[in-house]
Every structure is written in structure tokens, then in C-alpha cells.
Design brief:
Number of helices: 10
Mean pLDDT: 83
Number of domains: 2
Low-confidence stretches: none
Strand order of the largest sheet: 2-3-1-4
Radius of gyration: 24 Å
Distance between the termini: 51 Å
Largest sheet: 4 strands, antiparallel
Strand content: 5-15%
Length: about 300
């Protein structure tokens, strides 16, 4: 009987390194948001959505007596205590880390008298894109900066309200409520706040969709069993092994087909190259992949 050389998984230290990398990206991804908040939104007296926007309202209402970083920390701490009881500690672990990182950057980044971008319209456009890209990377690495994310998660679980709708409603209420502040009392600034929220949400979606695009692989190799096991263990993604036949040689062969995220393609190429450098690999972008491990099946 032929002895098959099975793939040996890498030690757990690689999972630890991956986790540390994700935590580092979460910490760095919070920096753009803190910069935009402290050096653009507050100096322009423009209130955005989310918990940061609510903390801005408290900051302006107290004439600066309540620092944004402090109210952000205190309110999120209360929300997290409720969320741990209602949603579970697994959701909250990285949220606690994300809240601490964001609070630290809010504390360290000063609030200038003059915003770094003088024109308010360009400020909310560029600021929204910059902050949204940072938050997109936070979310891609299973992180969260807390705030309305926690409220939306609770409402989604117990009130059966979609998270997107819950966050939209809360953001509109926060931004509209800022109109009654003396510093903000302007329809124009309320519209700027809505524009900022729209741009940041667009940037978040762009970053996440860019990375979450799906690809399909066809892998031709005599070491198909090792490659298949490596992909299922390391990526991890399910594989399907098809029977194929060469059109010229009429030689039978096995073909591995894999559906994966675009961000996972480099892992698959690395595994294939390490096991069989002579393998033939075809990668194509797919319009949409639905089901377990991807997007939920749409209603038609």
C-alpha cells in the first residue's frame, strides 16, 4: 500500500503571532479616527455619529469640562458590563481592547484651536474617508471601538433589529441632537455631520469589501492530498477534489477547487508553493459567494 505523506500543521505559535498582528492593527487603526475627531471635528464644532459624537455633545455642553476621552471610557465601560451579561464575553474581549486603544489615542492627541483642515466641507470629506479606512481595518481584524456597536449588537440579538438600521437611527439622533448646542446651532453643521458619517461609512464598506472579495482556485498537482489538507488546516477553507483528465495526454489527475476570500489568496499560494512548486494554479475573481463561511444566501 502506498504511504501518503500527510501535511503537518504548523505549531500554535503561528496562531499567536497572527493574533498579535491583529491586535496591533486594531491599535493602529484607531489612530486615524482619534486624529480626525480631535483635530478636525472638535475644532470645527461638527458632531459626527456614534459614541464619539455623543461624547462631543457632552464636551461642548460642559464647555470642555468633560474630556471626550474620559466620557468615552466611562460610557463604554458601562455598556460593556451590560453587553457581557447579555451578549457574552467573547464579543467583548476585543471590544475592551479597542476601547482602551481609542481612549489612549484620544488622550494623547491634542485638540488644537485651529483645525488641521480649514475648510469644513473638505474637512468632513477627507476626515470621513481617513477615519473610515482606519475603522475598516479595525473591523476586519475582529475588533471594535465600542459605542453604538455594542448597542446595535444588543438590539440585533434581542429586538431583532438589523445592526445597520440600529446604527443608522442612533447616528441620526446624535447628530440631530447636536443642533441645540450653542457651538453647533446651525443646520449647515448638522449636514456636515451627516456628510462625515456617510463618508466614513462608505470608507469602511470600501475597505471591508475590498478585502472580502471572493476568489476561486483550481489547483492541479500530484500532491493534491497534502495541498488539500494544508488549505483546510491553515487557511482554513473547505476544498473539493475533482476528477480530471489531460486533453492531450489523456492522463488522469485530481483537481482541487477552493473558494476563499481575496485576503486569503496569498496564504493559499504560499502553501501550494511550499508543498509543490511545480503545481499549476488558476485564480479567478467571483461575482458572489453565498453560504457558510461567506455571505448569507440572499432572498429573491
Amino acid at each position: 500500500m502506498e504511504n501518503k505523506k500527510l501535511y503537518i500543521p504548523r505549531p500554535d505559535k503561528y496562531k499567536t503571532l497572527r493574533t498579535l498582528k491583529e491586535l496591533m492593527i486594531i491599535a493602529l487603526g484607531a489612530i486615524p479616527f482619534a486624529i480626525v475627531l480631535n483635530q478636525i471635528m472638535v475644532p470645527h464644532a461638527i458632531v459626527g455619529g456614534g459614541m464619539a459624537g455623543f461624547c462631543e455633545i457632552l464636551y461642548f455642553a460642559s464647555h470642555g469640562a468633560l474630556p471626550i476621552w474620559l466620557t468615552n471610557l466611562v460610557i463604554n465601560a458601562g455598556l460593556l458590563i451590560v453587553a457581557i451579561k447579555l451578549v457574552g464575553w467573547k464579543f467583548c474581549v476585543r471590544t475592551v481592547y479597542g476601547v482602551i486603544c481609542l481612549t489612549l489615542w484620544m488622550k494623547l492627541i491634542p485638540i488644537p484651536d485651529t483645525p488641521i483642515i480649514s475648510d469644513p466641507f473638505m474637512a468632513v470629506i477627507l476626515g470621513g474617508l481617513f477615519a473610515g479606512c482606519g475603522l475598516g481595518f479595525v473591523l476586519l481584524n475582529n475588533g471594535s471601538t465600542g459605542g453604538t456597536d455594542i448597542i446595535a449588537m444588543i438590539l440585533s440579538k434581542y429586538a431583532h433589529l438589523p445592526m445597520g438600521r440600529a446604527m443608522l437611527v442612533s447616528n441620526i439622533l446624535i447628530i440631530s441632537g447636536a443642533y441645540f448646542l450653542p457651538e453647533v446651532h446651525s443646520i449647515e453643521k448638522v449636514l456636515f455631520g451627516l456628510c462625515y458619517t456617510f463618508m466614513s461609512s462608505t470608507a469602511i464598506d470600501w475597505v471591508m469589501n475590498r478585502v472580502r472579495q471572493s476568489v476561486q482556485f483550481f489547483i492541479f498537482s500530484t500532491k493534491y492530498d497534502q495541498i488539500a489538507e494544508a488549505i483546510m488546516t491553515e487557511v482554513p477553507r473547505g476544498v473539493t477534489i475533482l476528477d480530471g483528465q489531460g486533453g492531450y495526454t489523456h492522463q488522469s489527475m485530481k483537481v482541487i477547487t477552493v473558494l476563499a476570500r481575496r485576503s486569503e489568496s496569498h496564504k493559499i499560494f504560499r502553501l501550494v508553493r511550499s508543498i509543490d512548486p511545480d503545481a499549476f494554479v488558476s485564480e479567478t475573481q467571483t461575482e458572489g459567494v453565498f453560504g457558510r463561511g461567506f455571505e448569507p444566501i440572499k432572498n429573491t
